[in-house]
Specification:
disordered N terminus, 177 residues, 6 helices, 32% strand, VC0802-like, alpha+beta
Amino acid sequence: MHRRQTKRGELTMERKAQLSVILTNAPGELSKMCDVLKAGNINILAMSIQNAKDSVKELFNMREKTGRRIALAESYRSILKDSSDYSLIRIIVDKPSDAEKALLEANHLLHTDQVLVFKLPHQPGMLGRVAKRFGEAGVNIDYIYGSAMESNSEAMFIVHIAESDFDRIKDKLNDLS
């Protein structure tokens, strides 16, 4: 699935491979991963880093706020203890197959997933308009990350949805530019 427009500042959408890498949560680990990619002349296009412990804490806090028991408090404490040792690094790279091979050879734990990469006009409300179309199509956004430099005319966002929903969304964004 590719939806591209050539004018700068207009919405583009591409389906790309995302690598999710588990790193030990310790000083220097991200640098080591980056060195593996550098050795393969692989460029990182986007990255999200999430401390596993923080995710578990958020889940536990939601349990407390909503009154919903997702799991026993003891289970959270046990998972929290184990998760403090790791971080989840999500990356989009220019050569995903080469990156996967290099990271596996360097003994990194990883998973490859398909995501949608959007380049949007960098203006107030644009991401909200895109998210609204997902909702109207009945497509749930599992997670999203992205950024833009203040002076740029474009912003980039990486969106994870169920692969079964990719075809449902591809024509819903045609008139948003």
